[in-house]
Write a structure and sequence with these properties.
The chain is mainly beta and 540 residues long. Helix content is 14%, strand content 46%. Helix 4 packs antiparallel against helix 5. The longest helix has 16 residues.
């Protein structure tokens, strides 16, 4: 094995596509356990011209005792294929040269198992010089599919994992118990070794595992197909350690973990990934506290992955820090920092782990994907305060002690709340009719803080307004009482506006034009609320 490794690191040449011919006998190398290189035989069956945009693909058959009955495991993508003239002797003989043909990268969905497995091999010539095409999601489907990469995770958040799998079909999600600390085995990736993308490190490690195809100087190539269709990117790069390769008739996979971060994946092209050893990536420092349990992570800064990764680590933290399988009530205090901006939000939610992760990830997305300013997020801190007591209620009814009011009148309201498990609670509220209402119809509404907050977000027109919305928006456990009236002066809360946000009247059956909010009051309750009710009042 070490003679093979020495040979491939020192004397490997590159075989051009034009020199690869049907019938050629070759061999491939990969790691099936630990960091030990294993070999299997390859036969070039044919050359599939222009199978990829501006690229050929070699159709090959792989066989040998190491893969018999195993199929094509996820994580084997990138395993280098070498041609060696049979007159030169066994490939392990030191001093003999082998030429690199390409990387095992595609497989058939259905294939026979008796005499080997058909695969697609991405030419190394195209991996070193990928076409300008970045995204191949629009390519027509065929009987060949990219061999999946292993994505190992300990997070128990089915909704996030499903979205991850739906958005990135290259991944085979492999759940593992516990978290993996960074191993020191095989610090530098080499051809045939595991090549990792440690997207999250710290108190949990979430890794994408494939295989290294080629190394030249401090540059590394692998996978033979894209991982996320990102093109130019900045992702952490590492070698990897394979615990074992789990055989299955339909879904074999490498169970592995990334090792120490040693560089950056700079390109994620249709023909594979390219990385640079020594060029360290930027990472996001993330601290999550669940009651008194503290968790620390470093997350890849790739914006297109952040919502998924953030959702996974919040789910992992809540699952590890608070042992509950059902619904809970959680107060969540989140702080996000970029070099020049800080964002803060505190709110209360009811739900299970998936719900809490979805809520906090959605809020994170509002900040990251804001249309006002591109943010480079450096730090994230989230504090979860969780209780088993489920405090939820729905607004079921609204009554007022008068249907006709005058200016400065006091108005007594009763709001009926249907609580968790069927209890009914009535909330009394006293308000005063403002002095600036007109003698016209007046609409009184009571809505949950969540409903009011959702309406208000449509009015945000700057980053400062977004920051204010995050800190001042009604909380989910607040009742928001509003008075809205048609007013020719276009006033909101007694102040003249040149134009009215159309969202103000979105819950009325009449057209919204000309309506203005003349009063608002918030009442904090002990329940996370949902729903809204509206009644009509007359003004004398």
């Amino acid at each position: 094995m070490y003679k093979i490794l020495l040979l491939l690191l020192t004397t490997t040449g590159i075989m051009p596509v034009s020199e690869v011919k049907p019938g050629m006998k070759a061999f491939a190398i990969t790691v099936l356990k630990g960091t030990k290189i294993d070999t299997f035989d390859v036969e070039i069956v044919d050359i599939m011209k222009n199978y990829l945009p501006k690229c050929d693909l070699f159709l090959g058959k792989i066989y040998g005792p190491k893969i018999a009955g195993m199929g094509i495991p996820s994580g084997v993508s990138g395993s280098p294929v070498y041609f060696k003239n049979t007159n030169m002797g066994h490939p392990a003989t030191a001093g003999n040269e082998a030429e690199l043909i390409g990387a095992v990268s595609y497989s058939f969905v259905i294939f026979p198992r008796e005499d080997g497995y058909f695969v697609g091999i991405t030419p190394i010539e195209n991996m070193l010089n990928p076409p300008s095409t970045v995204n191949n999601k629009g390519d027509k489907k065929s009987s060949l599919s990219p061999i999946k990469l292993s994505f190992t995770t300990s997070a128990n958040c089915d909704s996030v994992l499903k979205k991850l799998a739906d958005n990135f079909s290259s991944l085979n999600i492999v759940k593992i118990d516990g978290s993996n600390s960074e191993r020191q085995d095989s610090i530098i990736p080499f051809p045939g070794s595991a090549l990792g993308i440690p997207l999250v490190t710290g108190d949990a490690t979430y890794s994408v595992i494939g295989t290294c195809t080629y190394k030249k100087g401090n540059k590394v190539w692998g996978f033979g197909h894209s991982s996320f269709d990102f093109g130019k990117t900045e992702l952490p790069m590492s070698a990897g350690y394979i615990y074992s390769t789990i055989p299955s008739n339909y879904d074999s996979y490498k169970l592995g973990v990334s090792t120490k971060i040693i560089g950056t994946i700079t390109n994620d092209d249709i023909t594979g990934i390219r990385g640079e050893i020594g060029k360290m990536p930027k990472l996001i420092e993330t601290n999550i506290t669940v009651n008194s349990n503290k968790f620390h992570y470093k997350i890849a800064k790739e914006k297109r992955l952040l919502p998924f990764l953030f959702g996974l680590i919040t789910a992992n933290s809540v699952s590890a820090g608070y042992q509950s399988v059902g619904e809970v009530t959680a107060t969540i205090d989140m702080h996000i920092a970029s070099p020049n901006e800080k964002f803060t939000n505190k709110n209360i939610y009811v739900g299970d782990i998936n719900t809490l992760s979805r809520e906090i990830t959605g809020l994170f997305g509002v900040i990251q994907d804001n249309p006002f300013q591109k943010l480079e997020i450096n730090e994230i801190a989230v504090n979860f305060s969780i209780s088993d007591t489920v405090k939820f209620a729905k607004i079921e009814g609204l009554w007022a002690d008068k249907s006709t009011v005058e200016i400065n009148d006091s108005l007594n309201l009763i709001v009926s709340l249907s609580t968790y498990k069927g209890g009914i609670v009535k909330q009394s509220i006293l308000i005063q009719i403002p002095s600036y209402v007109s003698n016209d119809d007046l609409w009184l509404s009571v809505e949950s803080g969540r409903t009011a907050s959702t309406k208000n977000i449509s009015k945000i027109s700057s980053l400062d307004e977004l920051k204010k919305w995050l800190t001042d928006t009604p909380a989910n456990n607040e009742l928001v009482v509003s008075l809205v009236q048609k007013d020719k002066n276009g006033q909101v809360l007694g102040k003249e506006l040149q134009s009215l946000p159309p969202s103000i009247g979105s819950f009325f059956t009449e057209p919204v034009e000309g309506k203005s909010k003349v009063f608002e009051k918030r009442i904090k309750t002990e329940w996370v609320l949902a729903g809204e009710k509206t009644i009509k009042l007359n003004v004398k």
